[in-house]
Every structure is written in C-alpha cells, then in structure tokens.
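User: Fold this one for me? It's UDP-glucose 4-epimerase.
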Amino acid sequence: MSWLVTGGAGYIGAHVVRALTAGGLVPVVIDDLSSGHASFVPEGVPFVQGSILDRALVEDTLRAHHVEGVIHVAGYKYAGVSVQRPLHTYAQNVEATRILLEAMQAADVSNIVFSSSAAVYGTPDVDLVTEDTPKAPASPYGESKLIGEWLLRDQGIATAGSEHPLRHTSLRYFNVVGSGDPTVYDTSPHNLFPVVFETLLAGRTPRINGDDYNTLDGTNMRDYVHVADIALAHIAAAQRLSGGEPIEPAYNLGSGDGLSVRQIMDAMARVTGIAFTPEIAPRRPGDPDRIVASGELAARDLGWAMRSSVDDMVQTAWDARRAAGA
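Assistant: Here's what I get for UDP-glucose 4-epimerase.
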C-alpha cells in the first residue's frame, strides 16, 4: 500500500515525499510541473506527470499503486495573484479537489490529508489564532482553501455509513520556509525568503513593506515554520488516519509567538554574511499587523513542534539556494 502525494514535485510536496519514505511509508507522486520540478522527486519514487483535473488519470494512479491515502498538497498558492486570477484559482484548488475526491471514492481510497492554509482566517482581530477563530478569507486563494475543507467535510458526512467512509483532516499553516534537503528549495517568486535571496544575489537591497505597524518593531508579525516540520505533521496525520485513530477536522501548524519581518531580515544578514539595511517601502493594502496561530492542538495529536530557530530556518534555505547555483 502507498500514499499518493499530489504536488509531490513542489517545494512542500517534495519534503512530504521524503518524510513518508523516512517514516517507512511508500510515496507516489502526481504533479503537472506547473510550479514543481521533476528533479525534486527522489530517484525510485513513482512519478506520474499530469493534472489532478484529469479524473481518469487520478483514478488509474490510485488503483495502479494500491493507494491507501492521499496527501493533497497540489494547488495554486499565490494569494495576491489569485485576486487577478480567481477563475484559475478556483479551477486548480476547488474543482481539482472535487475531482480528486470523486476519483478516491471510485477507487475506494478513504484517507486524505489536505494542505489548507491560514488564509482561511483572513485578517483576524485576535492575538492568537485557534482552530475555532472565525473564518473570513480575504482572497480567492483563501476562499478556495476553505471550500476545499468544506468538500472534505461534506464528503465525510455523505460517506459516513458506507463501506469506505472518508476520513480526513486539514492542516492550516502560514509561511513555510527553510529546507530539509539541500536539493530542494523554495522557487516561488512571491515568498519572502526566495525574494530576499534573489535580491541579495543580484546585489540589490531588500525592502520591508511598512514599518509603522502596531508591533514591537513596527513590522508585520507572522508565523514562519520550517518545511521539514510541516512535512512531519503531514506524515503524522496520515499515520493517524490509516491507524483509525481519532483526528480533528483541522489543525493549525502555528508557532504561538511569530516573527517580525525585521527579525527575518536581521537573520538574513547574519546568516548570509551580506550586511544590508532594508529599504522601507509603503504598506501593502490589507496587510494586518499580526497573524500568529497556536499549534497546541497539533502538538497534542500530531507531535507538532517548532524544532528550528530563525537562524536555522534561514541557514537551511540559504544553503539549498546556493547549492542550486545561479
């Protein structure tokens, strides 16, 4: 029996694949390579290149590899861009999830770990986000992730009395950073770490968007979590599902205290050895002062923990980026 990782050639998915192998589970990858890289898939791991919008392909893959569960990481993950491309976002994140669940039902696959997002909360007016914090997504991306959770919930209810009832959980997390393997790094043109690295490598000065927020140093505070820890939480959830253990419908993979953008910039300078003073740019519209989540529920059930310091997160990310070359 194996676990299918959708988006397994991407930055997060590739770490999930490695964590599955390390945990004694058998991964299978499906990815259309729209943002992933075939080189991120370890040698020997079955790799199906194609879209999860292709129901026949998904169902055939589930049957051919005797899949017992799915870790659904594939998706269009650019919240800002989703405002300009809502239809594309919904197709990739909502319709694809619906098709995946349809294929799973046809192939009698009843376990799924869904890679959701803290974007489902929007801009909550609380110091610490919990799983019960009201959901108010502020972008099509956040909305699409919340709808994905609803799809899992509704399919779970619909199949509850069947021979193969859907068992599921959704993992909500914020900014994923670092690297657990020097051959895998974040290639997103929108995420803070790769943006800063590319700016520094080009000899330019990184920017901070606003320094007048209501925080200790005036810059935004967010959860920054190491990708290897995120991957371990996915595996723990998969094992809990396959073992028939009780599981919550959703977990926050949060730090509990967060880091400011200025703290990240300071760590970037320390780790890279490139001294710089960030330029201060205007605020971005809609950016809240602070969004930080509690990880207590995930710690209780999934062994969730923040195992890396900010310098560790920057160091592993920087090492992987440099190993990739220019």
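One thing worth pointing out: The longest strand covers residues 67-72.
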